[in-house]
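Let us begin with a simple case.
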Amino acid sequence: MFAQDCKDFYFLQANKTVEITICNKKNEETGKNVYTVSDVSGSNFTTVNVQSEVFNKGKV
């Protein structure tokens, strides 16, 4: 049995930024999450450094 190969997964690639917008029922933006991957390492396992920022309405 083999585990999945994570190196191609977008969230596990170095120097990538992923932004997820949060909207209410009226489709109005109420916030966002920003994830920045700074380092990916490992051969038999994967270690990832991720910075996460959360922005609320009025601060987006």
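The second case is a distinct protein. As before, the sequence precedes its structure tokens.
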Amino acid sequence: MILPSSNSNSSPSANVGRSTKGSNPVHAASLVDPAAHPPALLQLLNIKIEKHVIEKLLTFPHTDYVADCVSEAVDYALGRPWSPRSSHTSLYNADFAAFASVVLSCAEVTPGTLLVALSYIARARAHLTIFAEEWARECVFLGAVIVASKYTQDSTLRNVHWAACSGVFGARDIGRIEREFLEVLNWNLGVHEADLMAHHEGLSSACAKATRASRALQAGPPAYNMYLAPPPYTHRRRSSLPGLEALPSPQSSLPSLTPSPRTPSPYP
């Protein structure tokens, strides 16, 4: 299980890897001996979320694993069939990918936080109710990342800083997104190794392709140059952006993330 870090004064990047607690080795993300974790999980926790990795995770055609996870959850909530190769998904993912890349980079999101956020998105998928598609991906992604960050880190960004990282939402917007995502999760924030390992294949594949593309860039003219460049970041803060504390309406530019009728949860 991923637990809060024991060092409240450390930077986010310092929470990846090993630390010591007394004479026993302790992994900073789980606070237990790394030997207790399967090697595949340690591989995920040691992913470096740097620029070329973020671009590969979010913008490489048909392998945008993180963007696909979010889009699948949103399409499911909207009752729409989802396909990673559909033109509809590709168009929406391109713009959303730029937004998510900026948030991951600006907030210095750690691998452990990203893994927990992906687990929350998968868990929330069956309980989301979304009435307006515009901004839905951004709200689901931000809600998952913010909740995951606050659950796994002793020291995390304030809502005003998350708002600045988003470049779109205000601090009050961030507060509502967080509260509504917590309600969708029914405040059940615990995660298990199986929740994290469900993303091993997708994340590992994306990172491997990112590494190969990065080496190709260093070796000569890149074969994937058209893919590596992130799409233009077109999101802009609008003066007409409604406050999220208002009741949702068909005219609202931002969706309300509300829980659907809940089935018994497998999590205690």
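The domain at 48-195+251-259 is CATH 1.10.472.10 (Cyclin A; domain 1). Residues 4 and 152 are 4 Å apart (CA to CA).
Keep these points in mind for the review questions at the end of the chapter.
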